[in-house]
Amino acid sequence: MLSSPHIPRKARSGVLLIVLAVGLTAFGTGCSDGTESRMETDSTEPLGSKEVTVPIPAVVTTIVSPGAEPRSLLRPEYPAGTVQRVTLHTSHHIEQQINDQSARDFSTPDLTIPMTAKTDADGIDLTLGTVTSPDPRLAKALTKTSGSHAGFDLSDLGTITALRLEPAPETSNPARAALEQAFYQAVYRSIAFPDLPVGEGAVWTVRQEVSGGVILDQVTTATLTKRDGDRLTIELDVIQKPKSAVWNLPNNAGWLDIQDYVMQGTGTITVDLGLPLPVAGSITVGGHQAYRDPRSSSMLQQTIDTQVSWTE
Fold first, then answer.
1. What's the CA gap between 145 and 183, in Å, rounded?
2. What predicted TM-score, i.e. pTM, was given to this entire model?
3. Which element (helix H / strand E) includes 128?
């Protein structure tokens, strides 16, 4: 439990802060319970290279406007064996405050992940290059991640159905957790295409459940602003809302009432239908949240900002 009548209020607040720092910084509320547990330790010991596959909730697309003629189905058109080199950049900043205490920064370090993507019959396999971070401690831990693998399983419509992660054998726990967070951010900022023909100016929505302690209903509104052959420029508007009035803390630590929750953002990505990953673009999602411990007077407020960028 989070609190007890025998624990001083100051101590209760400290426990609340620590538990939430672990739970909410893992993947920006989009994490699985298993990953949260790995985030809780700073052990630098390698955990081996066993592949982990995490299912990704299905998406539902709805066309708002089909756009101008000519219209066509937007579908990936790359053959098996297509190779693409691309770099993923991620950042996740979080500041949180309990009651009238000073706000504290629990941000996770930025990451830059160069990778080579290769397609096969089932999806996309990724081989990671030299991963870097401006944080000295994490940068040192990342030196042994080169050659790690990741991957996306895809549906017939090209949407991501599973995330696969296989770190290099000497990857430490902090480095593994950082990679997991980065790829989760990328997965939940990816775009799905509608199942009917569209043209320039088309607008459609993509609804997806983001799983974690707080189950979120994420709705992304996509606008096809430009098409040049297979190259698409798509503007994105993202809104997240909790599907429940409570947040269940990791490791059976209790729950909090959700008093306020605002997460939204925008961005633009460039997609080439002949390549498996975005060729350019950036999406930023942020907002503020407020939680209350129902067994005490403790209140927690958070300000969160995440960004995912792609470059060739």
1. 14
2. 0.84
3. strand 123-128
